[in-house]
Design a protein that fits this description.
alpha/beta; Rossmann fold; two-stranded antiparallel sheet; 4 helices
Amino acid sequence: MANDELYTPKWIFDSLGVQFDLDVCAPVQGPLHTPAKSWFSELDDGLSKDWFGRVWMNPPFSKPSVWVDKWLDHNNGIALLPLSGNSRWWHKLWNGPSAVVMVKPNTGFINSEGEEKKIMYGISIWAIGETNITALKMSNLGRIR
């Protein structure tokens, strides 16, 4: 799916102001803007690896459910996901220990050629773990729930 190769814009990381230990869904060439010490790309199969420390997760939007389950089990990180209020994985997040901010539609993401591509639907940024929830609250990305 084309939207599976869209990467987080730098301004989101600038707003969060945190360093990540691991980006679990980085481009094959490594993170474009993600302030992460380590990363897994599609070639590494991040779902099959052990995650460590504070993780950043912007998973393939075509199949986020398995990624959300692993992120919830890991219990330490920030995730960018499509706004999808009628899916099981979204309800797991909504009813779990995480905080969320909804980001406006038409957010510009970066494609594999380094060009901005706007997506027409909303996104949500989720935080789990006390320090990550605090970072999300301090980010001014929007109203926190």
